[in-house]
Amino acid sequence: MEKHPLRMVLLCFLILCLGLIASSACIASELKRPKDKDVKFDGKLCHLPQNPAFILGVCACVCLLTAQIIGNTVIAMPFCSRGNKIFDWKQRVPRCLLLLSWISFGTAATLLSVATSMNQMQPYGKGWLDGECYIVRDGVYIVAAALIFTTVMFILGSIMATRTRISK
Fold first, then answer.
1. What are the phi and psi torsion angles at 44 (to 5°)?
2. Where are the domains of the chain?
């Protein structure tokens, strides 16, 4: 992969674009999520119709997962192709950034998947949890967007630190 530096630039650009798409989808989900007035009551039972925030949340989850997979593949490629040790002590910075990317990825994916699942249609008597209707709180998707951005920055930082260490 070192023979084609343009390939590395394109992969980093792809990771960045996927992160921007996921963050944008989160911001759009925040704007389109259901509000309190959208919940309909029929006596004791409630109903919440499906809305565009569900599809946007799924799109954000898929883009985030794809960016994480591509980033980890790009980070691991030099170690597999050259026989380098993945856990070399000289690789502290890339490993720390990779660990931080996984922590922020896990937090963002959990937050995003739970919020997205709440935006599915919740029919009467079959709500999101225990037959009750739940809606996503204000700012949940904004926090997920910030975590997605953080994840992408950690991935790109780890890629750059790995490439710098290997080329030396």
1. -95, -20
2. 5-167
Neighbour tally for 42: CB within 10 Å: 9
What spatial distance separates the first Cα and last Cα of the chain, rounded to whole Å?
Answer: 16
pLDDT, tens only, 39-64:
777 766 667 777 888 899 999 999 99
Q: How far is 59 from 130, CA to CA, in rounded Å?
A: 27
Dihedral (CA of 93, 85, 66, 12) sign: positive
Look at the alpha carbons of 71, 76, 78, 81 in this order and tell me if their dihedral is positive or negative. Answer: negative
* Amino acid found at 86: I
pTM for the structure as a whole: 0.81
CA dist 9 and 117 (Å) reads 35
